[in-house]
Amino acid sequence: MSGQNCLTANAWICGEYLRTRSQELLDATAQHVLIALSSVVIGLLAALPLALLVRRWRGLAGPVLGLTTVLYTVPSLAMFALLMPVFGLSASVVVTGLALYSLTVLVRNILAGLDAVPAGTREAARGMGYGPARLLFEVELPLALPALVAGLRIAAVSAVSLTTVGAIVGHGGLGNLLYAGLDSFFKAQVLTASVICVVLAVLADLLLLGAQRLLTPWTRHIRSARVSARPGAAPSSSPASSPPAPSSGPSAAPGAKKAG
User: Fold this and answer.
1) What gap in Å lies between CA 143 and CA 259, rounded to an integer?
2) Could you tell me the mean pLDDT of each successive run of 10 residues in the chain, 260 residues long?
3) What stretch of H or E contains 182?
4) DSSP 172
């Protein structure tokens, strides 16, 4: 079924819908990506100082982690309703709500990644004259990247999914099309918006995974070394390597030029 017939018949798959509504789909997708991306970035900017605060004063771990967990349990509709008196019917309601949701996983993962940095590596860095800021950004954060990116992947996929709920305030990206399609039982619109949401979530996950592998090349060497060390495994042509300790040269720590 093709052309105007698929629209008249209200088919699930309709090329004519894609052709005639392409600009509407592009605009909704752009808004969806902007809202999801903004919420994850803001969540990360808020989670990092919170994780550092908890690591510095362990007594704050309970209140901070408890608060982020409580925020995550608030239903999205209730969260947006609580934020509307502050931001009005704007995209800021959705962005702020999703950023608050992301704190649960981001704070925990950043804290876990920082706690996993070997004490010997920290001592070696201090012995080379690294101050607290340089130690954090050139040694600890690069080594904590796997845990941090794992949290970002969860937060990004959740943000892409929950952005659709923003349709209740008119800023839901693809959610606007999805809810409108459900109201009118417009099959092609519902299916198309749903498929694009899934594709965006998969792309976000793959992009972050690829970024993690680019920023943490030493983890690939460690995995290769472990495979080579298994009984019966063929010897590796390259020596096993581990995260290098800080030195006085430009490459003082893994990711020294890539942290950010």
Assistant:
1) 10
2) 67 82 90 95 95 89 90 89 87 93 94 90 89 88 91 94 89 88 84 93 94 79 58 48 43 38
3) helix 174-184
4) -
